[in-house]
Structure prediction request, 612 residues.
Amino acid sequence: MASPKKKKKKVKASQVAPSQALKPSRSEWLFVLPAILLTLVVFGQTMGYDFVNWDDDVNILENRGVTTFNLKTIFTETVIGNYNPLPILTFAIEHAMVGTKAGLYHFNNLWLHLLNVVLVYFLGRRLKLDQVPAALLACLFAIHPLRVESVAWVTERKDVLFTAFYFGALLLYEKHRQSGKQSSWHWGVGGLFILALFSKIQAVSLPLSMICLDYLRDDKFKLTAPFSLRLHPVLAKAPYFLMSLAVGLLGVYFLGRDGSLTDATNYNFIDRLAVGAYAYAVYLVKAIIPYEMSPLYPYPSKLPVQAYLSFAVVLAAVGAMIVGYMKQWRGITFALAFFTVNVMFMLQVLGAGQGYLADRFTYVGYFGLFWGMAYLFQQVSAKKAMKKGLLAGVGVYLLVLTVVSFQQTRIWRNGGTLWTHVSKLYPKAGTAHGNLAMFLRDGGETELAMGLYKKAIEVDPKSGSYHNSLGKLFFDNNRDADAIAQYSAGINVEPTLGELYINRGAAYAKTGKYREAEIDLNKGIELEPDNFNAYLNRSLLYYTQGRLNESLADYDIMMRMRPENHDLLQQRGAIKVSNGDVAGGKADIQAAIQLAGRSPEAAKYQEYLNGL
Prediction:
């Protein structure tokens, strides 16, 4: 007698093994395609954009590591207190290929963002989303208006680059976790994590994001329960937490050493916490309604009452996560938790930076909220009665986001469009007027630039930097008395700004006031011992007075600062010859010829050497 057949047990969709939920196929790419096309519609225009005069100069145009392709400089020095050598290395490669033509830099930001969009789609598929909701997730990540800053701003290469490694690590982690193979995934994830950390310090949140993924996909997950590796879910991430701690402390040290953590406000401790709470609340709201977007959100002189009310929003979000965890509402808890762990280190509680908000800080964190929206769409669209209306609503929402993002992207065309936009939103922001003046100055609009520098001084009278900039503009136009007056006014309001003394010293030297010039240059070097221009100006002052030994001493310092500079070496050699050290001078000039290689300068150096 045949044994009775066993009835097959029905399996609910939510109980399907994660490894079965995603079967990679060509059809998957059809669902990624809309996000890719929307990305190209919004950001394709950036390939015709220029650099902007907001950190692009420091990171690329004036960065010696980039312009000379000096790997030692790239991997051992910080830029504005930030240690992110991999983005700087990519800039160096681009500079070697095209110099300062911005198109290639923008193109590379664009394709890195496209890569992140693809990674987001496939990570969403691994995390309980069907194809259409995962496509919605990818579209939201691709063209949300708060993406613009990270993609259209060349300096934010670190955002799109670190995120590629970050999401790559999460996708690899989730793939191996679902497959049950635990032997080698640590090496791949660990390697990608290191690359992400070398791209941007924000990557320190990776182990926390991994725990969020554990929670979402493990029905038996509890913070007190053993992990599949027979370790607590937090202890299993110990190597990653140690790396995060080390890099995080190092990053804080670098920022502090550079002065980037200096609080320019008069906020007390509660105020600083309110700034963080306000930023958290604003990021939550802007995920759905992206209003009043600005490249810069300057600190107000007095915090608005909304900042203090935002503590309630933070408590509500924390409460929602706790309740969601207790009641097993995994979607809500995961969405808020992933968002929170990826923005909490970027809330300006410590006072770093010039603004209390930054759209780019949401680049990774919004994955959590966008996943939550896509998951809600998946749950609601399962009801056929609501599906058509929901699809229409989502389509309209995406269209609105696309139009807003397209318009927002145009702000980043150049420094003029950027700072004009900021100055309209924040007419009392000295930075906006000052940087717009710099853009106009470089474009030859001298009178307009002078007017804007005066406006910047008017709205921010306690800053000496605008007096300094206006003074340099006067100096360049041979209005030396006006230049000295501006430098002096700047010293009165900000006596610790060394560049003011250095520039006033140069102006004094130009007018023949050598004694005053030397006093100022010495004071500037005392305040800013790493200021290259200070030594250059002082060496010229000494040379003009025939004090060749002192001039040579400053050249020795400058050569230690910029050993790759063949012009300095040639000039030092010429001074040595004038000082009677012909052999030493010839040696320097010969070394300069070797450093110059095949450049036109090498021939000039050789001609000078032949004439000795």
Remarks:
- Confidence is low (pLDDT under 50) at residues 1-21, 224-230.
- DSSP finds 30 helices and two strands in the chain.
- The longest strand covers residues 355-357.
- The longest helix spans residues 384-409.
